[in-house]
Amino acid sequence: MEASSDHLRTLAAVVEHGTFDRAASALHLTPSAVSQRIKALEELSGRVLVRRSKPILATQAGAVLVRLARQVALLEAEAAAELEGDDGAGRIAAPTSIPLVVNADSLATWVLPALATLPGSVFDIALDDQEHTIGRLRDGTAMAAIGSDHEPVQGCTVSALGAMRYRPLASPGFLERWCPGGWDARAAAEAPMLVYDRKDALQDRYLARFARGARPPRQYVPASTEFVGAAVLGLGWGMIPDLQAEAMLADGRLVVLDEDGAVDVPLYWQQWSLQSAALGAVAGAIARAAAAALRPT
Q1: Domain enclosing residue 105, as ranges
Q2: Residue 287: is its pLDDT beyond 90?
Q3: For residues 243 and 66, what is the distance between their CA atoms, to the nearest angstrom?
Q4: Number of domains in the chain
Q5: Contact assessment for residue 105 and residue 242, using Cβ atoms and an 8 Å cutoff
């Protein structure tokens, strides 16, 4: 199969934007032209590449080509930057956006300072639970991911970053209301529990050890900073990383419910197996920041 970079770029745009119309607007084409390019690419490959759903999604075969499209775009941009630098005109090529997927707690604590050390780079950051980030690597919509899966996705490399330590925390007022006699299995079964979203299993993992079979009421708070804020306000208890809780533990806004209840979540960096200066620079910045912020695994 021989596909032009225009066809691949169109496929990537359709998957990224979710509709033919939005992809056409981004590419400065008509929706008909976008549709024709996708049809031609499917005929060349002999496979259906996108599901005509809302939003449009890549099939397994389509994900392979979306990943190829992003790799080609990154290498083309780096080549253009080198050529611009060599022509003596002083022009600066526009940087290619690097799509990353990161778990929310890492983004709220140590990842953004790492990315800030790369002022010439542009990022498209997506959030997902640390146990689900690699799905975006598989479908080609991310070039790299920070998550807890150590098994490399096909076509990717993986390296250990360190571990985030989480502990069960709550406000003093919450503790006084729900467990005046102390934190025990009965209190854990009745007191409201904070959960990030329906993928978040960290609190359940703790309860399986501390109060097996407990099914407390759940307060869903799908934002990392607000999750901590909800604990401070007494809406529930939750597993909160030490990196976020240090100041609030020091001034008494939060207390540790169970000194033996720490859960260490190992984190890994996965990226495409691609010789890219930009991606290499991001990987280096992430590794340095992780070494300073995370616990050794």
Answers
A1: 97-297
A2: yes
A3: 36
A4: 2
A5: no
